[in-house]
Amino acid sequence: MVIGIPKRARPLSALAVRRLGPGFHPVGGVAGLALVVRSTGAKSWILRVAVGGKRRDIGLGAYPEVALAKAHERAAHARDLIRQGIDPVRERKAQRDALRAETGRARTFRQCTDAYLKRKTAEFSNPRHAAQWRTTIEQYAYPVVGDLPVEAIQLGQITRILEPIWTTKTETATRVQQRIEAVLAYAITHGYRTGANVAVWKGNLDTILPNPQKLKRVKHFAAVPVGDMADFWAKLGSQDGTGAQALQFLILTAARSGEVRGARWDEIDLQGQIWTVSASRMTARREHVVPLCPAAVEVLEARPRESALVFPAPRGGMLSDMALSAVLRRMGVDATVHGFRSVFRTWSAEHTAYPREVLSRRWRTLWVRWSRPTIALLSSKNVGA
Question: In what order do the strands lie in the sheet with 268-269?
């Protein structure tokens, strides 16, 4: 079958086109160009042309959004592509697909942060950590790059975020750097960014910013001197309340505040004198076994079992992280709860014969020696290994 070449129609004016009624109307100017007017009144441009030996009606847009002159231009361009052996319909589809793909890749730093956190939140040890993660990004990174496409972020913007806080808030700054690096790594992995990760430290930011290890000033937690522990322990024993008993247990086990406040009866083996802290509650995400000295067992035996928690808050649930600190304030002691871990470290270094490397691994086992008979001797030089 031979497909005839459309005859060139008499050119119509813009006014004539506007007056056309329902039907298929060649409008001239370009062979095969016509206006289709439907019974509903809808009008659209069609280019009727042969492509690869087959008749094709190619849509060129709706009228009057596409005026007569624009329709002439589009029709002429389509015919030019056909003469070059290019299918205009496939060419247009390829362009649409490319635009759609480009639009899909155009993600902002804010969008990538949200997506990253949505997937990674389950890995955080607690909701508070996730909240802190987001807060630091919102406070320091968003004002500079929050609404920028991740593809457009450059090294200068990263240094603009970090330099103002690098020497004054070094720990916070390093966390911000690591979190920006993680978000950009996510963006690169998912195809939203093709450039390098400009937030990495080694071989990048380390050539611009000072080494944070040389800037950090170690902040020691205030602690009760080892020589004063005997008097402190006696005063603590006279304090009433769950918080005071929890603090006693914390000191006798050298545990962290969160581990003690979240301690459950099903973790305690009084007969075996063992406390097994589940992996989900440990910072290292590994189950930890804590030996219990006789004094620690006495503290537990004095506790009621009205709750699944060993040291519940008065209204149920865990004690707040300030409950143990409040005990120290009431006693007028200038120390922190976490400081008792450093007290142990000092005691074990000064009053035991274990090497430093051994102490870092056996500290909780050594701590069983700090029972009531031992604690009374801490101000003495007679405390041995």
Answer: 268-269, 274-277, 288-291
The model's pTM is 0.45
Cα→Cα distances 146→111, 114, 138, 375, Å = 8, 11, 8, 55
CA atoms within 13 A on the CB side of 279: 4
**Does the pLDDT value for residue 198 go beyond 90?**
yes
**DSSP notation for 223-253:** ---GGGHHHHHHHHHT--SHHHHHHHHHHHH
Tell me the per-residue pLDDT of 121-152, one tens digit each, with 9 for 90 and over.
777 766 777 788 889 999 999 999 999 999 89
CA–CA separation, 318 and 295 (whole Å):
23
For the residues of 87-147, what is the DSSP string, one character each?
Answer: -HHHHHHHHHHHHHHHHHH--BHHHHHHHHHHHHGGGSSSHHHHHHHHHHIIIIIHHHHTT
Residue with tokens 């009624």: 21
180 and 201 in contact (C-beta within 8 Å)? no
**Read out DSSP for 33-90?**
EEEEE-TTS-EEEEEEEEETTEEEEEEEEEETTS-HHHHHHHHHHHHHHHHTT--HHH
Backbone angles phi, psi at 192, to 5 degrees: -85, -15
Count CA atoms closer than 13 A to 200's CA, side-chain side.
9
CA torsion, ordered 197, 120, 286, 213, to nearest 10 deg: 30
Length of the chain (residues): 385
More confident residue, 98 or 36: 36
- Helix, strand, coil distribution of the chain in percent, nearest 5: 50, 10, 40
Structure tokens at 186: 């996510």
- Output the six-digit token pair for 4: 């005839």
Is 150 within 8 Å of 192 (Cβ atoms)? Answer: yes
| φ, ψ (nearest 5 deg) of residue 254 | 55, 35
Phi/psi at 198 (nearest 5 deg)? -80, 5
241 and 327 Cβ atoms separated by less than 8 Å: yes
Spatial separation of the C-alpha atoms in residues 211 and 166, rounded to whole Å: 10
Residue 322 vs residue 283, higher pLDDT:
322
- Locate 117 and state its tokens: 């956190």
